[in-house]
Structures
1.
Amino acid sequence: MPLPLTLPALYDRLTGPWGRKAVIGVPLVFLLVFFLLPFLVVMKISVSEMENVVFKDLVLWSDGVLQLKIKLGNYLFIGEDELYLSAYLSSIKFAAITTVLCLLIAYPFAYFMARSPADKRPALLMLVMLPFWTSFLLRVYAWKMLLADNGVFNNMAMLAGLLDEPLKMMNTPFSLVLGMVYTYLPFMILPLYANLVKMDLRLLEAALDLGATPWQAFWRVTVPLSKSGIIAGALLVFIPCVGEFVIPELLGGPQTLMIGRVLWDEFFSNNDWPMAASVAVVMVLLIIVPIAFFNKYQAENSGGVRA
Amino acid sequence: MKVNAGRLTSLGWMGSVFFFLYLPIFALVILSFNASPMVTSWGGWSLRWYEALANDAEIISGFALSLKIAFFTACASVVLGTLAALALTRFKRFPGRTLFAGMVNSPLVMPEVIIGLSLLLMLVSVQRALGFPERGMMTIWLGHTLLGMAYATVVVQSRLQEMTQSLEEAAQDLGCRPWQVFFLVTLPLISQAIASAWLLTFTLSLDDVVLSAFLSGPGSTTMPITIFSRARLGLSPSVNTVATLTVLVVGIGVVVASLLIARRERRRAQEMSDAYKAGGM
Amino acid sequence: MSTVKPPDKLQTGEGSPPFLQIKRIIKQYDDVFAVDDVSLSIQKGEIFALLGSSGCGKSTLLRMLAGFELPTSGQIVLEGQDIVGLAPYERPINMMFQSYALFPHLSVWDNVAFGLRRDHLPKAEIEERVARMLDLVQLKAYAKRKPHQLSGGQQQRVALARSLAKRPRLLLLDEPLGALDKKLRERTQLELVDIIEQVGVTCVMVTHDQEEAMTMATRIGVMSEGKILQVGKPAEIYETPNCRFVADFIGSVNSFRGTIEVDEPDHVVVVSPECRHFISHGITGTLGMTVHVAVRPEKMTVQLTPPRDDERESPDQIGFNVVQGVIEDLAYLGSLTTYHVRLDGGTVVKVTHTNSARHTQAPLTWGSPVYVWWCGSDVVVLTQ
């Protein structure tokens, strides 16, 4: 009978089955109970009736008949109602715009940072991380101050005589995208930087030696090699942006209906828990493919152990 | 000259991005000293808002609660995250590994409204059935830990991967049982990663709005929730003061930590090159 | 080529039970046999080298000795006890890792003391033993330093001291000199052997470097694709390889394919396209069998004139063991010159001469037409 491999087997053998099982088991149980189980609950509630905050059971046994009551009404409503459809679409739209803008701004930034002298890089990295460590809520609020009709930009512009009346920047798609790009920029910079800084510069030298112009070398060598950084950054920005709530709430307006706000309103304002659950389920379905990509990327890049 | 143009673009681009990143922070700090109650029109320098902050019971109690929750979150996240990181890097095959990895990594990108809603609905169902837990500090702590665990796992995992397995094998070869290997060899070597994971999850928890909003109960209002509700209504000077203080504390902390780490790295590199030069046998 | 004198403690007497017995060890991963039915007996006090190229299974075998891999089947018996079921920390075996694996957060002293502390020895004894070990490797002055403050050679000595501190019954070395540069390697080879013999520990080492194996080991086991091809003292392996792989792996060899024409108990004649071969000893083979005749380059002589009859080893060899060709390439290496001679049939033969006066009578250069000849007693016949 073939014996199990290496260290795991030996861990097993001397701490009994308990050692290895505990290391895997504790976080696994935690996640099953507090991450997976809630999703199942959400799915169940999305197809339940809600009466005075009590959930009717899905399964009824009466007169010898087993009845399965699944209310698909919420889903049908979502499918038909303009509001929900446009909210989903606009969420995806704004998330996509944010991702592209972040990429356009972050790539050159990460590139320049990676090519800076090696002793300056830790300081630069620290400067990028510092805003990340200060509260994101406060920084988003700060944009409110800056962009308001009577905000800092407008006031200063009017004082300087550049404007006669305040420019409407607040509660527009502009302010929303600005806020999201601002918040998620570090999430795009870091994976790109991590990738670019490890890139072997000799590959570029080889390309130039073989006759490529710097521009060609960039597009044909650097960019393809940084593909994994681009994908990681894009996923880290796009997926959370779809379900963003705080930024649309503080900086968004009537033209920027995002699904995160819809879900919040359904829950807190309408108190319609099944509806909120259905909205959540559809949202997860929308982002499940990108999340699967993200998990695959994480698995590939964490690989396991180099002995 | 080409080289100079390149340098200029590089510095120009980086400078602009840094300006963009720091502008709101500067604005917050400066305006926190604004004498005028109209946040955006300047009325001179004043400390009145700091005085007001000292008397702002809501924020102070919210802050105390946030601190407590953040502390417990950081501790739990680091423990769970380290276990998960060990499981993923040292045990190459076990049943359910893909699901496990997926669950550990997903909170990193999953929108918080979804995590918050689903966790809350489950907790409420449990409460209906078993009578507890009440929504409050513990439920907020659970949600924060779920998120924090994902971050802690990433940080510890990347350090564990750097650390080759041969160190742990050497320890075993010299007579350590598995738990001794962990405490005598693995733990000291990942201690820095654990510390930064702790700080990271502490900050995340302190700052969290959405999960806290879903999972809080009466009497468990955290500071971010308070700030958020004020911010929704309009502009409020108290926010600026909190911001400035936060920036101060975090700024000093990060700068000091970075300097210490940089100094240690420099010293280490120096020692290694000295040894190499003295060299040979 | 071996420079190791057999240690006094070596017990090669027949009938003494082997110190370490590896019995029919198999390691299987899915369809691949990393180690394929290997059996070895290792004597107490010897330095045994497992030699082979990467992927041949030698490292896997070593790891099974250490306890980091479990064999699919087979036994490992150390001093009469089957240790397969024991975890690494239960075995009286210590290993020196290829990367040294020194604990970066501990000083040199603590690294060496690490294993001793696991045994809960009294403090005084630990101190005495660590001091003695550091003396042995001449690193007493560096006791307080951390690994990153040491050079590569110093780190290696700490690793050695650490693996000897517990007085293991068996010492395992994983590519001990792989990380050092050539000059350092030569010096270290001999020092390492000195220390191991001084301590008197039995040692199994793994290497892909044949020079290392030949210099350091008392016996060598050549491995390929999970199997042991030949076991023997360095001279045996070199002079009498039992197959083409071993002949080719250690040093270089010229190999001629031919059929046995004459098969007598005291001599054999093999006919190959290049020439007729006279071999001055009997072999196990039959008439008409296809074999390979192997001759080492340094055993051949190249010269402008045909060999004189009185130069030959014995009269029956006249007309045998000689070929004609043209020097296609030569490399002057200071102490040696290597000639590549292309024969009429197209085969290239490699000949090495030491640059001593005898051979400089007429200078040989590219294009010189030459004769290459050798003695029948320097030939090995290989059937595989």
2.
Amino acid sequence: MKRREFLKSALAAGATLSAPAIFSPAKAQSRQETLLIVSESGPNNLDIHGVGTNVPGYEVSWNCYDRLISHEMKTGPNGQPYYDKDKFKMELADDMKLGDMSVTFKLKKNAVFQDGTPVAAKDVKWSLDRAVTVGGFPTFQMAAGSLTKPEQFVVVDDNTVRVDFARKDRLTIPDLAVIVPCVLNSELVKKNATEKDPWGLDYVKQNTVGSGAYKVVSWVAGTEVVFERNDKWTGGPAPKVRKVIWRMVPSAGNRRALLERGDADISYDLPNKDFVELKSDGKLNIISTPYSNGIQYIGMNVKNPPFDNPKVRQAVAYAIPYQKIMDAVLFGLAKPLFGAPANAPTEVAWPQPHKFNTNIEKAKALMAEAGYPNGFETTISFDLGFAGVNEPICVLTQESLAQIGIKCTINKVPGANWRTELNKKALPLYTNVFSGWLDYPEYFFIWCYHGKNSIFNTMSYQSKETDTFIDGAVTAAANGDKATYEKDVEGFVDQAYADMPRIPLYQPYVNVAMQKNVSGYAYWFHRRLDYRTLVKG
Amino acid sequence: MLGLIAKRLLLAIPNLIGVVIITFLLTRALPGDPAAYFAGPAANKEAIEQIRVKLGLDRPLPEQFVRYVKELAGGDLGNSLTTGQPVVTEIRNRLPASAELTLFGLVISISIAVPLGILAAVKQGSWIDHACRVVATAGVSLPVFFTGLLLVYVFYFLLGWSPAPLGRLDVFFSAPPQVTGFYLIDSLIARDFGLFRAALSQLILPGVTLGVFSLAPIARMTRASMLAVLGSDFVRTARASGLDTRTVILTYAFRNAMLPVITTLGMVFSFLLGANVLVEKVFAWPGIGSYAVEALIASDFAPVQGFVLTMAILYVALNLIIDVLYGLIDPRVRLEG
């Protein structure tokens, strides 16, 4: 073989080597109509009413089922589409009439389930009955809007459903627009239900039986979920993407490589550092949105010494290295909730920044006043499931608290054990996140600060004044008494920031990275993807 | 031979009973409360209790154990809570993926390590001996996740030669009809060569990653045992009788050097199944290792028990095969057995 021929053949070999990146035209066509999403973990159940359905499962439910009502869109804080919590739009319902103690829905006449059966009032009632009866998370979420008994859901005629209010509660209507009150094909489920399992949990776990815009055509747990568009959908404008493939890629580095190589279309759970770098590269669209009604905080157990002393808690609040956490842990991808100007008025809003800043001198003085001039020893705990953010926060806090004499040992709690530990309410000092689907200040405070001590009141905080303010705000909201409501909201926020049982650090961001040719991303309270508005190409 | 196999299988029974008891107790001793985990972030005490009752975790331990053994006897390993699927189905689907990857990695490793080891022994002290030492040391000191990520970075991200690390197949291929569960074999049975190529190209990087990791023990063991054999009397006699070097080395020396190599292969295969866990994570491989680890993180008992049990059965089978192979290679073992 001559040298020139050899070079030629080597070149040809090189060309065939790169062949896997080139696709046949037919494949390219289906690629164009298909959206490939990569994320760390996938659903464990396609039914949001199931036992222990995980958060990725919510995404399936949202896209495959309809609710009576949903939300309109508005422009969010980052200039991107954002759900409008105050404006509702009809999804399965054609019309909503709000009475004094009930609300009546007329169903869309042409709405059908994915198997072609028309959606009837009995399906709606059966589905809502299911949500309030099966127990666990769905029942709990329904109760948050005072929807607790099957008797509250009444079939008026084939096409009309009435929801009776147990009491006046302004969260009832928003709670009908969350993921849980989705409508299932009741006849189909009943056919596949057994005596032991009257609500067909086993069947709906594996099959999507709604009227939603997408249906799951294949699901390999832990590996992939494949969705196809339901062309019979009546809930809104027809979605543009025909097929969605959602693959689980556990390694964050590979998810990033897939995006940068243009093989994956969307990913949303990359480390903050990757998002910052991808943003500055400019090759991808990166959209960051603060969690609605969500806060990462440092909590303290106020039942036991030394954190039962408000002076100690204030000292800690002065010793947290807020800015370092923002820069070194989050790379700026979060909304700070600290360091409001001393004269800033309290707003009728939540989350809002508190007035503490890092000030070691003040912290030391407060420790001395509290009777701990030499500090004390304690442990700071975090959930290993979110170690990427939690661990550096705890290390920085440990370092900073050492300066005022508080010696912390770091306690890493495995993800499976975290909720058990929180439920015991015995951890002295810890970091955690809480976020509520319903974006109302009093909703956050009922769960996190009220003396009835729900599991999210991880500090065991008890305050008569706070309880009065919260209860007042709930009643005022139900009755539309704006002045009292505002006064009460300001009251409980002030109280929380004076007593400081938990120290808000920041509002985390939902970061979504997508190819430049993908558009139509919208932020929802559940923070998962809505495939219905996404467009490729 | 059959007697040997039967005797071996009988001996395995107490082992398996032990494994069943220990896995049951160990999973119960794990920290973490599955009921609290699966009740979700918003659950209150009652909701957690409801789930505990649903899962049967409120019953006393002996009762749970009896139920577990009963179900096990019926071939039911329970349901995984993290993936929501029966453990038996999951293991049946995932074991071939892990086995295909491990065997592929082992084949790569053997085809490099054995010749390398022989050459190193024959030309002791030469550059090839040193090369063998360097390759083996480097291979064993690089953690698999690192080699894996490095290979992905170079061959997928920079060069674009390798397909996206998205598991066993590119998203636009669908799996061949299942016969063996090995995609390479099944795609050939289905006569779908495009699919075979796709499955092979997905296998190469993870296979090489595993192969590199297991080079060291095989190459070193081949070298050592070849050296011992090459120094023995019968090799000297063979040489003295004027047999050509090739025959001496391959027919006489290597066959006798194979016993320790086979033993090492058995060990390597078992630790590759373990090393798989990390490789599966890096390459999004839907194998049994990543399944078990995820279950462990979530205190999901059933898959962990199922995994350990499957592995125990695999080891018993593997040891049996190695023993049988011994007999085939070395008649002396057969007589004693």
